[in-house]
UniProtKB/TrEMBL annotation:
It is an enzyme of class 4 (lyase). GO terms for cellular component: cytosol. This is S-adenosylmethionine decarboxylase proenzyme. Belongs to the eukaryotic AdoMetDC family. The keyword S-adenosyl-L-methionine applies. Substrate binds at F17, E71, F238, E262. PROSITE patterns: ADOMETDC (PS01336).
Length: 348
């Protein structure tokens, strides 16, 4: 996280950083020879200037390019673009530029679907427009895509916001026919997010320069390298504190973790599209690594993906280890199901 994003509180001399991220994901309809990875690094850097962040490091597999940013991460594959940024960044301001590059450079002229989501900010008033309120975010997204749907899930202080776009053809069946004509089928897709707050101070200390000499030490001592084995890890430890990592696998799977360790505002996010039919083991590893007091869990999955079964299983979990379920919702969208849950640690 960039030092310019840290806010000092004169009341108690504690430093604050908004760890909650804004996450936007755009899928494009398959087109012959179209590939978002044709967009150059310099062009991405120009886009990220609009967002108010920059590229720190880069890694890739055959199927996905992964960028660690000064505020979180960006992933680029053939027809999917993901941008996840924390602090007071402005990711929605860059959407128009991304759509132009997708059309003019990558050969993608049609949007298949859009997902924009975030937790409630700790300090929403500190955000820059349009991110100071969800209504403004939705208004801007609608100016780009027109046919979006906005949802709010969970209790007020821990709510989770979602904007998603129905497929332009109106039905999944119509899109499947279109994709078959292009010699491509709809890809099974699933994404799990675990958004954690109020974390164990002893764990958070690992992600400071005072404790860890480098990112590799923090990755190893926290157990991050064992959450999803087989990932090629690109990690970064900020000075004086803070941590980001991307992991990529040969099959196109990714994982990303971002950590704000300051005691007054500790926050950790975990995200992956790893295709498993049961997320319980992954969730357990994440919770054991970071030991949050509270977390939001979301699972998006297409009906034909392994993650669809995982989402159904989560509906049956009134508790996860030492955590009790405070709120849960299940929704169906065009071609996707969503499981949302809010968990809190049992009183000791």
């Amino acid at each position: 996280m960039a030092e310019t994003e840290i806010i000092s509180s004169s009341e108690n001399n504690e430093q604050f950083f908004e760890g909650v991220e804004k996450l936007i994901e755009i899928w494009f309809t398959p087109a012959k020879n179209a590939d978002l990875r044709k967009i150059t690094r310099q062009q991405w850097e120009n886009v990220l200037k609009i967002v108010r962040c920059e590229i720190i490091s880069f890694t890739q597999s055959e199927l996905v390019d992964a960028y660690v940013l000064s505020e979180s991460s960006m992933f680029v594959s053939r027809r999917r673009w993901i941008l996840k940024t924390c602090g007071t960044t402005t990711p929605l301001r860059c959407v128009r530029a991304v759509l132009s590059l997708a059309r003019d450079v990558a050969g993608h002229s049609r949007v298949h679907n859009v997902f924009y989501s975030r937790r409630e900010f700790a300090r929403p008033a500190a955000q820059l427009q349009p991110h100071d309120n969800f209504d403004s975010e939705v208004k801007l997204l609608d100016s780009f895509f027109g046919d979006g749907r906005a949802y709010i899930m969970g209790p007020e202080k821990d709510c989770w916001y979602l904007y998603t776009l129905l497929p332009l053809e109106g039905t999944v069946d119509a899109l499947e026919k279109e994709h078959c004509a292009a010699n491509e089928l709809l890809e099974p897709d699933q994404t799990i997010e675990i958004l954690m707050s109020d974390l164990d101070p002893a764990v958070m200390e690992i992600f400071t320069r005072q404790y860890s000499a480098n990112a590799a030490q923090a990755t190893r001592e926290s157990g991050i390298d064992k959450i999803i084995p087989g990932m090629v890890i690109d990690d970064f430890l900020f000075d004086p504190c803070g941590y980001s990592m991307n992991g990529v696998a040969k099959d196109g799977c990714y994982m990303t973790i971002h950590i704000t360790p300051e005691p007054a505002c500790s926050y950790v996010s975990f995200e992956s599209n790893v295709p498993v039919s049961c997320y319980e083991e992954v969730i357990t590893r994440v919770l054991q690594a970071f030991r949050p007091n509270k977390f939001v869990l979301t699972v998006f999955a297409t009906p034909d993906s392994p993650g669809a079964e995982a989402a159904r299983q989560l509906k049956k979990f009134p508790a996860l280890g030492t955590y009790s379920l405070l709120d849960g919702q299940h929704c169906r969208f065009a071609g996707y199901s969503l499981q949302y849950a809010l968990y809190c640690k049992f009183p000791s």
